[in-house]
Amino acid sequence: MKYIDEFRDGELAQRIGAAIRAEALPDHRYNLMEFCGGHTHAISRYGVGDLLPPSVRMIHGPGCPVCVLPIGRVDLAIELALQRQAIVCTYGDCLRVPASNNLSLLKAKARGGDVRMVYTPADALKAAQGNPDREVVFFAIGFETTTPPTALVIKQAAALGLKNFSVICNHVLTPAAITHILESPEVRELGTLSLDGFIGPAHVSTIIGSQPYEFFAEEYRKPVVIAGFEPLDVMQAILMLVRQINQGRAVVENEFTRAVTRDGNLKAQALVSEVFELRRSFEWRGLGEVPYSALRIRDEYAAFDAEQRFALATRQVADNKACECGAILRGVKHPRDCKVFGTVCTPENPIGSCMVSSEGACAAYYSYGRFREIPIAVVAA
Ligand code: SF4
Buried b / exposed e across 6-37, counting CB within 10 Å, b at 16+? Predict the structure, then answer.
């Protein structure tokens, strides 16, 4: 398939792997964070780690929207479904995110809640049009990539004069999370997390462009390479980061030139800022409260803000004590460090959010890494 097969070419992967092994200095450590769960998935699925030298270490970042969704936010949607009899629409992965009282949206559905899986926010809007006597709430999650479609349906609902449609907005922002990690005690004080560079997310960057990452290169001296989600994209980005580090450079480079520009999608950005504004603070699972890291619906569209419409208040709820998701999302632990990984916690019975989505570090490691003892080569899927 065009734009897929050529980025999964095993022979080319071996050549890039050889270049990384040749150029990475054996006495140097290259601690590289792949911010996005899409990269984590690709690295695990295609055995990218097996082609890297011991000096290059990949660290999973918090860029999986399902993984960073705090329990208190899922509780809001469950409350609407079970106690207010609203139709709650959301993306498939959200349905299984563990919430309070051993519930999830899927379990709430089993208890009689009208919870529906949708592929796009437009499906939720359709549900509202088709059920004028019911409240329909879209539980919106995601980074900058999924924010414009949510903005669009809010605008459409306003234009249609819908009175029964609203949104719980959980949209979060990539640059704020990277700043939070770079300012974390683990990086700045304790020295337990060493970071030498970032692989930046391609899809987010199609919207925001490469420009927002320049701050990290200039202020923190951390190179960033924006990369696609195929194995060759990721390997090329690792090679580009190794080269920057060897040369003492820290700039933003764009491996994903097939879709990312410096300025991004200006039309989408304008749409988002028309409907949303920054929240002062937002809780991320694993990272805690992160200032200016998420969006809320502007007052002009308050009628479509489910938090205001239903006077919802988010409670902070601690994760399951056995779960190491928080430390994994901060990059300081690996899924294998969790005592319940693969035993009590599996994709069928996730205890923590990192085991839910295929982009979650635990789910990716469970699916592709847990039994591998000998290196495997990158192969076309
Ligand atoms: S294996 Fe499960 S419980 Fe452990 S950190 Fe991962 S998601 Fe959390």
Answer: ebbbeebbeebbebbbeebeeeeebbbbbbbb
Alpha helices by DSSP H, listed for the chain, are 10-23, 37-45, 71-82, 105-110, 121-130, 147-160, 174-182, 185-188, 202-208, 214-220, 231-246, 266-275, 306-309, 325-329, 361-368
* Closest approach atom of ligand 1 to CA 356: 7
CA–CA distance, 35 with 350 (Å, rounded to integer): 22
Nearest CA to ligand 1 atom 7: 352
Best residue among 71, 328, 341 to mutate for probing ligand 1, ranked by most atoms within 8 Å of CB? 341
Supply 36's token pair: 């996005």
Atom of ligand 1 nearest to the CA of 325: 5
Which helix H or strand E contains 60, and what residues bound it? strand 56-63
Q: Which of 60, 104, 285, 325 maximizes ligand 1 atoms within 8 Å of its Cβ, making it the mutation to test the pocket?
A: 325
Which position has the token pair 């694993």?
286
Cα of 136 to ligand 1 centre, how many Å? Answer: 32
Single-letter code of the amino acid located at 265: N
Report field, pTM of the whole predicted structure over 0.90: yes
Residue 265, pLDDT score: 98
Identity of the residue numbered 341: F
Report mean pLDDT in 10-residue bins for the chain, 381 residues.
Answer: 86 96 96 94 93 95 92 97 98 94 96 98 98 98 97 98 98 96 89 92 97 96 97 98 98 96 98 98 92 97 98 91 91 92 93 91 88 44 34
C-alpha angle 181-186-189 in degrees, rounded to nearest 5: 115
**Ligand 1 and 325: CB distance under 6 A:** yes
